[in-house]
Amino acid sequence: MRVQPFVLALLLSLVVLFTPAAGVPTAPPGTDKVVHLALFALLAFTGRTAGIRPWPLLAGLTVYAAASEVLQALLPLGRSGDLLDGLTDVAGAVLGLGLYAALDRFRARAV
């Protein structure tokens, strides 16, 4: 079990999700969805490497995705909550879990 990458991914997610809007660089439309997808894929993948079981990890990341969008809407960050961002977060988590499972199967066959 390697917990440090997961902790670093969590810290990165806090910076990415809760940086005030004034500190977020401008980017082409849709870039935020790619960032959300990649961030939650990273969280899921590193969560699995930390030994967290898939279903509890997916449930926790789903709650985190929803909470982050609600907090973005409520906190004075100049940001807004977005349902599509939350759904993209969950899709990223599923992607990360799938990548981990595929890599795990590949490693099992290589042994």
Automatic annotation (TrEMBL):
Q: Where is the signal peptide?
A: none
Ordered alphabetically, the record's keywords are: Membrane, Transmembrane, Transmembrane helix
Q: Which Pfam families does the UniProt entry name for this protein?
A: VanZ
Keyword Transport attributed: no
Q: What is the name of the protein in this document?
A: VanZ-like domain-containing protein
TM region(s), chain numbering:
33-50, 57-77, 83-103
- PANTHER family assigned to the protein according to its UniProt record, in alphabetical order: DOMAIN PROTEIN, PUTATIVE (AFU_ORTHOLOGUE AFUA_3G10980)-RELATED (PTHR28008)
Q: Residues in domain VanZ-like? A: 33-102
The organism of origin for this protein = Pseudonocardia saturnea
